[in-house]
Amino acid sequence: MKLAVLGLNHGYKFAQDSKQIAGVELVAVAGNDKLAKQRAELLGAPLFVDYRDLLETCELDGVIITLPNHLHEEAVRLCAEKGIHVLVEKPIAATVTDGEAMIRVARKHGIHLLVGHHRRFSSKVRKLKETLASGVIGNLVGINMMFTLAKDHAYFAENWRITKGGGPLLINAVHDIDTIRFMTGLTIERVYASSQNLIRKNEVEDTASILMETAEGPTINYFVSDGVPAPWSYELTTGENPKYARAKGDCYYFFGTKGSIAFPSFTVYTYDENQYGWDHPLQLKKMNVQDNDPMTAELLHFIDIVKSGVSPFVTGADALETLKVILAIKRSAEERRIVEI
Known about the structure:
Layout: E1 2-6, H1 11-18, E2 25-30, H2 34-43, E3 47-48, H3 51-57, E4 62-65, H4 72-81, E5 85-89, H5 96-109, E6 113-116, H6 123-134, E7 140-148, H7 167-184, E8 188-196, E9 207-214, E10 219-225, H8 234-238, E11 252-256, E12 259-263, E13 267-270, E14 283-286, H9 294-308, H10 316-335, E15 339-340
Parallel strand pairs: 1-2, 1-4, 2-3, 4-5, 5-6, 7-10
Antiparallel strand pairs: 7-11, 8-9, 8-15, 9-10, 11-12, 12-13, 13-14
Helix pairs in contact: 4-5, 5-10, 6-7, 7-10
Domain Gfo/Idh/MocA-like oxidoreductase N-terminal: 2-117
Protein name: Putative dehydrogenase
GO molecular function, one term: nucleotide binding
């Protein structure tokens, strides 16, 4: 199976992992900066500065696209026209129009389109989904979420990350929104958001506070900031990516009629049936979950898709629903009003 990786920031891990999998050949990579050149040399893979030249030159079965968001539509279209299956990084696109176009062109040319919401492959995320469905905390009433950390200064050297189409809402919050949608099965139908650029003063937000209402009833409160020294984010608390220094704590809290649960510590709080209420101590227990590497699991799933034709676990249509929520949040913050989805 012949693979190529377009983009060597987030895509570097995919490229590294692919070289360790029997029956998979990393044919080439694409990137246009000094870091990409260094990483291509470490991988021992030909480097194309323009990914279009790579697609024209190489014979491929699958392509992993980790380019800036606004390039996703073009890259997927070029792959589809050549009959190449695609794993495209989240968000599916920068706009709903582009996302819809990607879904259409994949269908037209009969290729599989997998969207890289890799957290859906996490053993922790799947266990939380199973736990909520089991009724351990009763009926879900509400959720509190946080994405709070400080990215290094060099991260913002790439212009696309600090201009329209970038920012933590499209780059990071899209992960959290998709994770919550997957864990709970809730349909987010209305949002109100306030965003600021108090930290870096760039064109895009660096902080936002969001209230989400669902068709099923529970509400979701979400605070996001990528410029504050704090540990309460999925990346730092789960320890799933060795790139980040792991921190103790939780980033999601689920409140139910019978109890509450914190993620990723899987700390469950309930009352004894005969000692219910604030006059009595809460009963506390922790659940154990075996760790895994979600990105590697996602790559293995993509390989199965290409080799065996299995259906993508994260379809374009599903990823588009997550994008719609994020874009509604951005619109709400810009227009200072409630936005229906």
